[in-house]
Each structure stands twice: as C-alpha cells, then as structure tokens.
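Please check the following for our workbook:

***
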Amino acid sequence: MGSPPLERLGRLAARHGLRRWLPLAPEAAVVSVTFDDILGSAARTGARILEDHGGRGTFYAAGSLTGGQEDGRAAHTLDALLSLQAAGHEIGSHGWAHQAYARAPAGRIRDDLDRNLAYLRRHLGPRAGEHFAYPFGRYGLRSKRLVAARHASARILGGGLHQGRADLNLLGCHRFYGEGRQPAAWRDWLDALAPGGWLLLNTHEVEPDCGPYGCRPGELDAFVAAACRRGCLILPVGEAIAYWRARA
C-alpha cells in the first residue's frame, strides 16, 4: 500500500523546494556509513568495524530510546553515546520520540526537534545533533523547512549516491539492510561511485541474528573493506561536508 496522496505531494514539493546545494569536487570518492536509532550493537560492533578500517560513522540518536529497547533489542545508553563521541564518531539527531514527520503538525515537529537537540547538547556538548535523519525517512515541505532551520544537514531514505552536488536539506542514502546488505547490491553502488561522488548508507543493529532493518557484522565489514580498497574516504556526514567545502 502506497503513501497517501497528500504525503506524496509533500515529498514532491520538498524535493524541489528549499534546496541547499553542496558542490562535490571531482577528487576522492567519499562513503558515509550512518546508523539510525543507535541500537546497542551498532554502538559497539558497528563502530568497531569502522574504526578497524580507520573510518568513523554518524549515529542518529532518538533520545526517547536511550536506555530502552526497540523491537526487543537493546538500544544505546548515554554512556554509549559518550564513548562514540570520544572515539571520533558523530552523534546526530533522529528526533526525540522517533515519530514520522510527513504529515505531523508544525508545532509537534518543532517540539520534537527542540527536545532532542536540548537533550543531546546537554549531555554531549553544542555540536551534538548538528546533523539529522528523518525517522522512517518520511518528510514533507513543512518538515524540511523546520529541520533546515535547526540542522546543518538532513538525511532521508533512498537515492544514496550523490554526484556533482547534494542537497544538504535532503540527503539520500542507500539501505544497508534487506537486499541492500547483499554484495550484489552494494558492489553496484561502489561501481557507480566515481571521484567527486558521495555515497551514504544506513542500517540499524549490527549482529549475527539481525532483523529486517539491520545487518550482520561480516556484511558491514566486507562492505567497508571493499570501499577502502577502492580508495574511498570513510567519513561521518559532518566531516564529509567539511571535506567538500574545503575543495569547492
């Protein structure tokens, strides 16, 4: 069953409005690995895999999940967020209540964004939550405007390869779960990634018995290793943006 017509119209308007273009210089290819919700295994195993290859990732936290569970799996703790940040990973915002923004009233979106930013910055400092990922990848023109006023970038789902330029208010990403965690899929992504290209992907838990929205440790390791062999830079979203701006 597809999205309601008003939601589809909102997405269409968002794709063509309020764009904030980032030029991508034709130099190195960049890969950004992101984790939504920050399950406990992502904070431990996902982070370690990136670190083993000299890379760092972006972890989007929803404060309401801190110390709790999601779909029966342990979510991150505050100590885990602090450890991730200390290791050089980036802590982004996923909104407080992990709610879809596509058709939510402006006041509810605003309150959810501000509550999560206040929580992250109280515990992690003023740069925490600078970058944002839409819960469930759902958005519209109203939410795009509200998010853009508070965050340096916003990430959705789908369309994860950017070449030449990228809209910082609506960054795409490929799903590294389901069929996307299979080599047949991600090898095509890497084959299409040319110098001056930016590939973003996202996943959730990183564990042997992963669910439909996660991946196994060996699968993530294989992808990151392949990207490194091709000379890709493995950078968090904020560092990738700084890299491109320095070369604009």
